[in-house]
Amino acid sequence: MTHPLSGCIATTIAALRDRIRRWTCPSTRSVLGYILDRFRSPAELARENALLRQQLEVACRQIARPRFTRADRGMLVLLARLSPTWRSATFLVQPATILRWHRQAFELFWRRKSKRAGAPPRIADDTIALIETMARHNRLWGAERIRGELLKLNVRVAKRPIQRYMRRVRQPRPPGQRWGTFLRNHTHETWACDFLQTYDLLFRPIFAFPLIELGSRRVAHVGVTRSPSSAWVTQQLREATA
């Protein structure tokens, strides 16, 4: 007959063994599993990795799109940083995805580090009012022109904030035909002209005045002279359009 105390001791020992087995089981979600893996033999780790790879291959064929939490992403980025062969060990995500998570973590870190809590505005209110006044009364001025005018007053403001404050006082342009659309619609009716300077055999200057149709790229007229003048240019235009 078995003594009750022996059965209780056996149950306690079995529970203790099961708990120790769970503690020493390698886990990808805890640092303890990585530390314990350092004391295991390479052959045992290789066999276990082969078993895990086979299961992952089966999971990849069945799971359409697994979801990763922020903790999962951070742990995968950390493990990829510690493993030299991490590119060949990724199954559920692409290596480019892990690199993107790594860049996002750096961006979040530096954004929080550079953010100043309760910091006063970098641009004074009178400077903002001056920018809005310039943008309101000078419709043709861009951000670069306003920045130059502020520099004359010894006020240094970046171009991006000026553009942000300009949008407050300027209404968006009404929809209409742009300059590029006008050129495409009237290319066949537009000519281009310019002066080209060259030299003869005695190194005397000669000026050529060509007119080119933009639509067909055809040279419509060419005039040559040694002393161009406004009257001569007018006569060349008459001859080209006659």
Condensed summary:
The chain is an alpha+beta fold. The chain has helices at about 5-25, 30-35, 40-60, 70-80, 95-115, 125-135, 145-150, 160-170, 180-185, 230-240, and strands spanning about 190-195, 195-200, 205-215, 220-225. The model has no long low-confidence stretch (mean pLDDT about 80).
Structural account:
This protein is α+β, with helices and mostly antiparallel strands. Among the domains are: 125-169; 187-241, no CATH class. It is 56% helix and 10% strand. It has helices at 4-24, 31-37, 42-62, 70-82, 95-114, 125-137, 143-152, 159-169, 179-185, 230-241, and strands at residues 191-193, 196-199, 205-213, 218-225. Strands 1, 2, 3 and 4 form a 4-stranded antiparallel beta sheet that branches.
**CA-CA gap between termini:** 129 Å
- Rg: 38 Å
The oligomerization state is: single chain
What is the number of helical segments per DSSP (H or I, 4+ residues)? 10
Computed structural class: alpha+beta
Give the mean pLDDT.
Answer: 79
Order of helices and strands: HHHHHHHHHEEEEH
Q: What's the main sheet like?
A: 4 strands, antiparallel
Shape: elongated
Tell me the β content.
5-15%
Total strands: the figure is 4
Low-confidence stretches: none
The helix content, as a percent range, equals 55-70%
